[in-house]
Amino acid sequence: MPIEYKNIHAFSRDELERLFLSVDWSSGHFPDKLVIAMKNFDTVYSAWDDDKLVGMICAMDDGIMTAYIHYLLVDPEYQHRNIGRTLVEKVKEHYRDYLRIALIAYDNELSFYEKLGFAKSKDSSPMFITSLWT
After folding, report:
1. Domains, the chain, ranges and CATH?
2. Residue 42 pLDDT greater than 90, yes or no
3. What is the value of pTM for the model shown?
4. Angle CA(92)–CA(96)–CA(99) in degrees, nearest 5?
5. Is 112 helix (H, G, I), strand (E, B) or coil?
6. How distant is the alpha carbon of residue 22 from its chain centre?
């Protein structure tokens, strides 16, 4: 069965918990918060194998100039099937009239994003503060 892509914001806590924990993301331990977060994102595209959530991308934007990809994750059992690439392409199409789409990528992810047209900034570095409340 082919992967189906949806533009929705409503997910069950179990769907989100399973997907986020499948990639060992700590936010998967807070599925009730993830349900609310998905409703608050400007843009969410998800990938489904029948009724199983297997991937998603979430973005925020300022309404006219800049969009930020916050989450891109694909269940490891479904990686290397172009699901991540398709999700990024959907976001790129959605924000085609914006000046830029930004994201923070880990070093081991750079080649993936570069293949999709992203370029590492030459004069800036990502900065963030991470806190995990229990």
Report:
1. 4-115 (3.40.630.30)
2. yes
3. 0.90
4. 105
5. helix
6. 14
